[in-house]
Amino acid sequence: MGLFGMWKRERSAEYSADDKTNPAEMSPAQLQQKAEELLGRANASATTANHTTSPGLFFNAYEDTLQAMRQLVALEAYVPFSGRRPSEILAELEGTSKRDAAATSMVNRCLEQHRWSNRKQAETELAPYWAKLPKSARDRIAGLPDACADGTDPADFSPTAYDAANTRQIEAFRSAFDLTSVEGIRAITVDAVTPWVKSAPGVPSHPVEILSKQASAYAQDHIDLAVECLRKANELRPHSGMLYSEESYLRLVRYLYKAERFAEGDQEYQRIHAMFHGPHSQLPSPHALGVAALNRGLDSAKADGVDLVEVTWSSTCCEICGKYRGRIFSISGQDARFPKFPSDFCVDCGLNVFPFREGVSVPLYSNPQHWIEENARPLVDTRTPSEKDAYLQWQQRRRMEHEHQLNQLRRERQDHMDYAWIRSNLPDLLPNTFSGYRRMKTRNTANFQKLRAAALALGYRL
Ligand SMILES: [Zn+2]
């Protein structure tokens, strides 16, 4: 979607300038530029059509490819095209066999990624395009299971009904489990919650979310219950089928500090830190997710009997990605025209691969006329000096973000300790609320300076 959106923006900027120009009146340089723009458009929309799992986007992108190719055909008499002529490619794209193959691939991708859970859902979404779908694709849709008995049909999605379903589920959850006592919350087990995870109609009624929200409600007056809710939420997170950031786990640490249970908070912090950064980390790190995405890309190519893959592009990437971005590889290494897919492919800078069907896919990062020669070039880092710079800055920013998060947590802990100390040692000077104390400290008000002096007199540094 990102690619398509980006390209749409680019295109509208490009086309305001010289849309009305007649090829006969254009200079050779203008013609060349126009042809390159159109090729870029055709490539971008063809890539979208070849990769998308949105039927609407697929048919739009395919139509856009045709339009760009038609305009290229209009330039054919004026621009020297090497390789296959635009009119030839257009005829092929307009022919039913190319179109049907592309539509069938799109439907297959949708099925692989479980876009539709039942036949009715698929038919509803595909209804506007039904006539354009080849029989093989329709047959695959017919093979989907019938709508489930409860009749939930995403086509009838209504926000009111969604909210109501979530509210019902939350109420049912709260009567099934006791969230009003520490023992009650502790007694909730992963097994007991599993059916609730499966039947949640939306994120708000997910057990983890119910517990997190309950923690907020308890934060003011029942901090120990709030802590228990978050501890249980953290226990359930890995079984929730959703991904949670370190930040969401660390909320428990914050609440423990708030509850002035400092040692416990520190312990919990160590556990969470090890979970995310430790050598035995069980959580899917961004790296693990990258590996999984890469394997999905390679597997889907293999499953379709496609040996070639095209690597996507990133302008903020490391030196390894700089060598591989935008290139076409042979997975097996048997196709001598292309390098074998590298074993040191990097998944940390956001690059991925897509199956490349020779004769169907249009290469996005190689000249479609010379893509085979271009991909025989040696693999060298193609990053520009400013791209290298951007990468270094990005890395630095990432490192600093983590440190910043850590510092904030440390400060929060210290402030809670100080607030507790004031309560015990200078109760008359205690600000009404913790947040009031933090505000006066940040602003370094006259009252805070008074408080600090009084603490110092007792040998404590605020
Ligand atoms: Zn990289």
Quick synopsis:
The chain contains 20 helices and 3 strands. The chain is an all-alpha fold and 462 residues long. 25% of the residues are buried.
What does this molecule look like?
There is one protein chain. The chain is an all-alpha fold. It folds into four domains: 2-142, no CATH class; 160-275, Serine Threonine Protein Phosphatase 5, Tetratricopeptide repeat (Alpha Horseshoe), CATH 1.25.40; 301-383, no CATH class; 394-457, no CATH class. Helices cover 61% and strands 2% of the residues. The protein has 20 helices and three strands. It has helices at 2-18, 28-51, 55-75, 86-94, 96-112, 119-126, 135-142, 159-176, 182-186, 190-199, 207-218, 223-236, 246-258, 262-277, 286-303, 319-324, 371-374, 385-425, 434-443, 446-457, and strands at 308-311, 328-330, 353-355. Strands 2-1-3 form a three-stranded antiparallel sheet, with helices on one face. Helix 1 (2-18) packs antiparallel against helix 2 and helix 2 (28-51) runs antiparallel to helix 3 (55-75). It is elongated, with a radius of gyration of 30 Å. The two termini are 51 Å apart. The model is unreliable at 1-20 and 149-155 (pLDDT under 50). It binds zinc ion. Residues 317-318, 320-321, 346, 348-349 line the site of zinc ion.
